[in-house]
Amino acid sequence: MKMTVIDSTEQIEKVAPKISKYSNTQNRVSTADFSANDPFHISLEKLSNSIWAPDPTGGGQQTMWFYERARGSYDETRNRERTPARIRTWDAIHPRKQKFDKVMLAKIEETWALRPFIVSRGGQKNFLEFAIEMGERGTREVDEEYYRDLISKLIIWKSAEKIISDQNEPGYRANIVTYTLSWLLYLTGQRINLQNVWKTQAIGEGLKETIDFLSFKARHHILSTDDNVTEFCKRENCWNELLKETIQLPSSVNTELIDTSKPTGIIGGQRE
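and the corresponding structure tokens:
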């Protein structure tokens, strides 16, 4: 074994990730594996422990979304409460359904970057791409606005999963979710009003209708191939071909956009 001793506790968060990174430069995957100590993830975790989400009912029962920077940290933090009463209080503030991790974060970010073919390659490969891109661009600023927008995107993702599951069309849900949302973002010029999603902690009826509408078409598209469907979804060509389809969004989506005076559809790959 190799042991590295860091004398200064103030330097641990800064030095430890570099030890992991530069000790494993022969394998790009290893850099992603140790990314939990990246300042980006540390900042995101701190925000998740300090920002309260609004009570969608208008009452005073605010909650928090829990960013699980390290695997198992949700249960570990929960168990620190010790007594059943304190655990119940903690659970009310941190519902398990509001837990998310690095893999989920990467799916959301790559979907919003209009790269559903990367997301379709699986959680770990997608996270690796996200980590590499972040390393090449430099760590982005993580502030309260970024965090709220991220949670809004997560709410949209989870809502899309439910909508597609309720269609009772088996198979390929993960692929359909990322393709549907990337397509929606492309068609609307990424003008979904994330602030409204944050305030209500839910998506509106216009988004529900539009996601339902687009997901059927996205499913038809990925199933149209003569090749293996899963492999087809991993190819950039799958995405490029989808963008060529003639489509008109339901008018209800206009209520969900930041500026409804602008066009919301793309016909044959050309913006109206």
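(Above: one complete record from the training split.) The radius of gyration is 20 Å.
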